């Protein structure tokens, strides 16, 4: 059975709306609906209720208030009527616009919201990943999950998430702001020569990662300690005070070097992959605007590429942050950490937790980029901006 084609509606000069496929006729002048066009031989007969027409009220409001299905067209409409229908279609659906005139502030707000939403969505996976990296609750995702549920219940999966949000929101705000600003300024305009020998997104991503890490690293260390050392600290402030008392200000930056070293390739690869995939999408599909779902998928793919390439440095960083907790070895530097892990556990040790890490980082990257782009569309400079 073949596919049924949708027929166009034709608005004739005499004011009748007809469908040639079904034989239906609708008079916009007398508001009558006729189930069979062949039953009426003349204009005078059409619209006569005695001849079987069904009267529909408010047919004259069709153009103003009724949305026709996709594929239907009305011929013979005036330009004013067409404008009304186009405007109605364009304004359909809920659209929220908030005026923020400063472009830098728009980027910072968008980045902060994107970071908070994305990290909260994947908080349980972040907790499991951290335990796997330091081997504190088991050696597989299932073992860690069961151990957390047994000791702390569902709340244990979100342990440290508040601190994580406090850290990630400003971190992601700074990161996306720096990336967007540098990338826009360094990207050559059509016809211009490249300003850098490397892709601007690669350099912008590295700068973005370095900036956000330097500003928010102590919060990340506090979050890691709160997640791993159960019962040692009462809250964020208590952890901050005790760490200062035990190790001084330098303890808040333990593991900073591998973080700075690791964030350069990660952030550079992440943003470069994201920018490259967006350009490829526009070229292949010939669309300038990219929807939310497409942005989610592109951002997730970029996160998968960057996290896999730089994961060993992330493992070394986490173990250096934990320090001598539970009699663990204290590493001198990132090279010492990598060499020791490789010697004791082999290649597998450098990639312990990669599975749950990708399960966390991949959707987190996608959600973050999607929220950021969506927020930038909501926060506009003036009314009417898209």
Key features of this structure:
single chain; 386 residues; mainly alpha; Mitochondrial carrier fold; 2 domains; six-stranded mixed sheet; two-stranded parallel sheet; 14 helices
Written description of the protein model:
This protein has 386 residues and is mostly helical. It has 2 domains: 9-90, no CATH class; 100-380, Mitochondrial carrier domain (Mitochondrial carrier fold, Alpha/alpha barrel). It has 14 helices and 8 strands. It has a 6-stranded mixed sheet, with no helix packed on it. α3 crosses α7, α3 runs antiparallel to α14 and α4 packs antiparallel against α14. It is globular and about 75 Å long. Keywords: Membrane, Repeat, Transmembrane, Transport.
């Amino acid at each position: 059975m073949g596919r049924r084609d949708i027929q166009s509606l034709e608005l004739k000069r005499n004011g009748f709306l007809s469908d040639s496929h079904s034989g239906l006729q609708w008079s916009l002048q007398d508001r009558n609906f006729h189930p069979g066009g062949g039953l009426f031989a003349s204009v005078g007969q059409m619209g006569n209720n005695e001849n079987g027409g069904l009267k529909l009220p408010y047919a004259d409001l069709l153009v103003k208030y009724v949305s026709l299905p996709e594929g239907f067209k009305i011929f013979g409409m005036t330009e004013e009527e067409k404008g009304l229908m186009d405007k109605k279609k364009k304004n359909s659906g809920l659209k929220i616009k908030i005026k923020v005139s400063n472009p830098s502030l728009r980027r910072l707000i968008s980045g902060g919201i994107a970071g908070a939403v994305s990290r909260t969505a994947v908080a349980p996976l972040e907790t499991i990943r951290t335990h796997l990296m330091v081997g504190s609750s088991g050696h597989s995702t299932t073992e860690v999950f069961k151990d957390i549920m047994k000791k702390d219940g569902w709340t244990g999966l979100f342990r440290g998430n508040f601190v994580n949000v406090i850290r990630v929101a400003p971190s992601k705000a700074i990161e996306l702001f720096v990336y967007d600003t540098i990338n826009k300024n360094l990207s050559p305009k059509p016809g211009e020569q490249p300003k850098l020998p490397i892709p601007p997104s690669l350099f912008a991503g590295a700068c973005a990662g370095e900036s956000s890490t330097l500003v928010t690293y102590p919060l990340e260390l506090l979050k890691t300690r709160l997640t791993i050392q159960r019962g040692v600290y009462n809250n964020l402030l208590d952890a901050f005070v005790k760490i200062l008392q035990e190790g001084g200000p330098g303890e808040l930056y333990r593991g900073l070097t591998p973080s700075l070293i690791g964030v350069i390739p990660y952030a550079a690869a992440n943003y470069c992959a994201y920018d490259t995939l967006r350009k490829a999408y526009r070229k292949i599909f010939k669309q300038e605007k990219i929807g939310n779902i497409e942005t989610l998928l592109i951002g997730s793919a970029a996160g998968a590429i960057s996290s896999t390439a730089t994961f060993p440095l992330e493992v070394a960083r986490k173990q250096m942050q934990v320090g001598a907790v539970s009699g663990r070895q204290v590493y001198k530097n990132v090279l010492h950490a990598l060499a020791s892990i490789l010697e004791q556990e082999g290649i597998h040790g450098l990639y312990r937790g990669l599975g749950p890490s990708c399960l966390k980082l991949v959707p987190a990257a996608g959600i973050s980029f999607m929220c950021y782009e969506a927020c930038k569309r909501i926060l506009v400079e003036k009314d009417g901006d898209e």
